[in-house]
Design a protein that fits this description.
Layout lengths: L2 H11 L4 H8 L3 H8 L10 H8 L3 H5 L3 H20 L3 H14 L4 H13 L8 H21 L3 H17 L3 H10 L6 H8 L2 H21 L1 H5 L12 H18 L10 H16 L3 H20 L26 H9 L11 H13 L2
């Protein structure tokens, strides 16, 4: 069936005359007749108007098998997802780029590609030229999603990413405008906590509290590093240490059985921040203690299994395994941190040597 035949078929199914369609499109009835007789193809700019009037997608007008297209996009998406989860993020990026060459209007693939580009590990020798190219591609896809996507989930993700990216490329005002457009009120999970009952309500409430707890306590690290407008630190190093120690203690209270899984990354960051301050003071004992703790948490993070669940009183039963493993995992990153000149005063310490060798066993 040609595009003209499809226009005629759908027009008749909707009970619309050629004259009515022509009036809607600000054309002559003879122009519509010529389309339907396949003498002339409609201009591409008319397709969105036709789709809107007929309440169908442009794909239907063009004769694209929508179900087949959705299935193929889904296959591309999940292939890229599995590839990324296996730590091959740049391969996932290539898969998504190839997918967008086949389906350039897929907002789902665009959003996933932007997320992968945003979170990709840096390549050796990557410079500002390469970073600028990645940012331009992310900006292009984010702009397209925000201009044309009507899927609430994809749009919400794009808004969040844009709020981080736009200030980096000189679009601070656009980022603020987007942030201000996010509505106040209940989150999806909070509303479901009200609507659900019984076991489902308990599980949703449990998950919601965990999310809020880790987000707020995890943010204490960023708070400790706050600076005034003149660039000076808000907190002294001693005050920072107190904040990090409170943060570590709060996580220990919440995960009271010592099983952190995915959330092990948060106390790891706090312990490493403590280690850096103590290293600057050349305090061997305290620096080693916090590095060892950071290593334990990093190892827990990279060794969790796909089907692991949390088991502490407040988190019992929450699936929390199978974190995405980067091409350079958290242990590798911590190992490179230990190579910093900041820790040169520890090189002769047996505990430090043992720590480094332990990390090497789990690095990739």
């Amino acid at each position: 069936m040609t595009i003209g035949q499809r226009i005629r078929k759908i027009r008749r199914e909707r009970g619309i005359t050629q004259e009515q369609l022509a009036e809607y499109l600000n054309l002559s009835a003879s122009a519509v007749s010529q389309w339907e007789c396949d003498r002339v193809m409609p201009d591409i700019t008319q397709l969105p108007l036709l789709a809107n009037l007929f309440e169908v997608s442009a794909d239907v007008l063009l004769g694209i098998d929508v179900d087949s297209k959705a299935k193929k996009i889904d296959e591309i998406y999940h292939t890229a997802l599995k590839t990324s989860q296996e730590g091959r993020r740049y391969e996932a990026i290539d898969i998504l780029r190839d997918g967008l060459r086949q389906y350039p209007d897929s907002f789902r693939l665009m959003e996933f590609l932007v997320a992968e580009l945003r979170c990709r590990p840096p390549k050796d020798g990557e410079g500002e030229k390469e970073l600028a190219a990645y940012r331009r591609q992310m900006e292009m896809y984010l702009d397209r999603i925000l201009a044309g996507c009507t899927d609430d989930t994809i749009r919400a993700s794009a808004v969040q990413t844009a709020c981080f990216l736009y200030p980096e490329i000189g679009r601070y005002d656009d980022a603020v405008k987007l942030a201000e457009s996010i509505p106040e009120g209940f989150t999806r999970r909070e509303m479901l906590c009200i609507l659900y009952s019984g076991t489902k309500r308990y599980e949703t409430k449990r998950d919601d509290i965990l999310s809020k707890f880790t987000n707020s306590v995890g943010e204490l690290t960023d708070l400790a590093e706050s600076r005034h407008d003149d660039g000076t630190d808000v907190f002294t190093d001693d005050e920072k240490l107190r904040i990090y120690e409170k943060q570590i203690a709060m996580f220990a209270l919440y995960f009271d059985d010592g099983r952190y899984l995915y959330h092990a990354q948060y106390p790891k960051i706090a312990h490493l921040a403590c280690a850096e301050i103590h290293a600057n003071r050349k305090n061997t004992e305290k620096t080693l203690y916090h590095l060892e703790q950071a290593a334990n948490f990093a190892i827990e993070f990279v060794t969790m299994k796909e089907d692991d669940t949390l088991t502490s009183l407040l988190t019992r039963g929450i699936p929390d395994g199978g974190a995405w493993q980067e091409e350079h995992n958290q242990v590798t990153w911590l190992l490179s941190t230990c190579a910093s000149s900041r820790y040169d005063f520890l090189r002769s310490e047996e505990r430090f040597t043992h720590l480094v060798e332990k990390l090497k066993l789990y690095a990739r």
